Amino acid sequence: MRIPTDVLAVLSDRTKIDGHRMALVGPRLTPALHQRVNEVLEAAGGRWPKTEGAHLFPVHAAEALAPVLATGEVVTLGEKRTLAQYFPTPDPVVGRLIALTDLELGMTVLEPSAGSGAIATAAAARGAIVDCIERDPGYATVLSDTHVARRVQVADFLTIPAEPRFDRVLMNPPFTRGTDMAHVTHALRFLKPNGLLVSVMSWTVTEQTGSTTAFRKLVEQRGGLVEALPARAFSQSGTTVDTVLVTIPATRPADAQPTIWPVRDLSAQDVEELGNPADIAAEIVADLRKAVAAFEEVAAALTKPCAHHRARRYRGQLTMPLLENRQEQCRL
Ligand SMILES: C[S@@+](CC[C@H](N)C(=O)[O-])C[C@H]1O[C@@H](n2cnc3c(N)ncnc32)[C@H](O)[C@@H]1O
C-alpha cells in the first residue's frame, strides 16, 4: 500500500528511536490517525505492548523503518496475511513432512524460512525445540507472537554462517530461479553429523538440467530420498506448482539405497489424449516393419546391375550410421 502523506509525516518527524523501541512524540494523534500509523508500524514488524507505551521491533527500529520511509510504501500485515495464505505449507503436506522426519521429543529443529510458522508449529507440537529464521520482519513478528519457537531471527538465511548444531532441519524455502536448491544446500551445513533434513522443493529438482546437476549429485551421494507430492498439493495456498519432499541425511547411511527420482504421472486426461500405450507400441512396431520392408526393397534393387549407378548416392546414408543414430535416440 502507498502510505498516506499524513502517516509518512508522523513517521519521519514524530518518532523517537531507542534500539528496538520506537515511541511517538509530540501532541497526541487522533485515534483514526494513530490507527493508520500503527498499521504501517505493524507491517514493518512493530508490536505495541500496552505496558511499553512504544512499538517494539524484532530488529533495530531504524532498520525496520528505513525501507518504509525510503519507498513510501509498505505491505500491510492484512495484505501479508492474505498473501501468506498463498505460500504456507498446507496441513496434509506438513503432516507428511513431519512423518518423514523421525522427530523425537527434545530434538533441536531449525526452520530457516519459517514464514508464519506452519512447519515450526507442527514440530513444536511434537516436543521439538525449534529455532526459526525468517527474512520478513512482519511474518517473523506473527511467528514470535505464537511463542512456538525458542528463537525467531529476522535475517536472510543465506547470509548466516553455518553451525552444525541441529538434529533436524525442516523447511519449505522459496523456489524462484532455483533458490530452493541454494537454501537446502546451505541448510545441510546446520545439521549434526547424525542429523536429517526434510524439505518441500520444486518439482524442477527432479529434472536433469545443467542447473540441477550439482544438487542431484549431492542428494544421491548422501543417499537422499525424493517423494512426489500429489499434484496441486499447494492449490489451497493459491499455486499449482508441482512439488516434492526431499529427505537428505547429514551423513550417508551405511544401508543407503540409490536415490530414485520420481517421474511425472500422466493425468487421466493426458492418457486419454495420447491413447492406450499398448496400441501406441503396436503402431510403432508396424511402422518399423514397414521401414525394414522399405530397406529390404532398396537392398534388393541395388543388387540389380542396372541400379549400380545409384550406389554412390546411397552409400553412407541408408546403412549403419543411420541405424545407429536411430537406435541411440530410441533407447528403451
Ligand atoms: C514458501 S514460504 C514458506 C513459509 C513456511 N516455511 C511454511 O511452510 O509455511 C517461504 C518463506 O521464506 C521466506 N524467505 C524467503 N527468502 C528468505 C531468506 N533468504 N531467508 C529467510 N527467509 C526467507 C519468505 O519470506 C517466506 O516466508
TrEMBL record:
This is RsmD family RNA methyltransferase. GO terms for biological process: methylation. Residues 107-205 form the Methyltransferase small domain. Keywords: Methyltransferase, Transferase. It comes from Streptomyces chengmaiensis. GO terms for molecular function: methyltransferase activity. The keyword Isomerase does not apply. Gene3D superfamilies: Vaccinia Virus protein VP39. PROSITE patterns: N6_MTASE. InterPro entries: DNA_methylase_N6_adenine_CS (IPR002052), SAM-dependent_MTases_sf (IPR029063), Small_mtfrase_dom (IPR007848). Pfam families: MTS (PF05175).
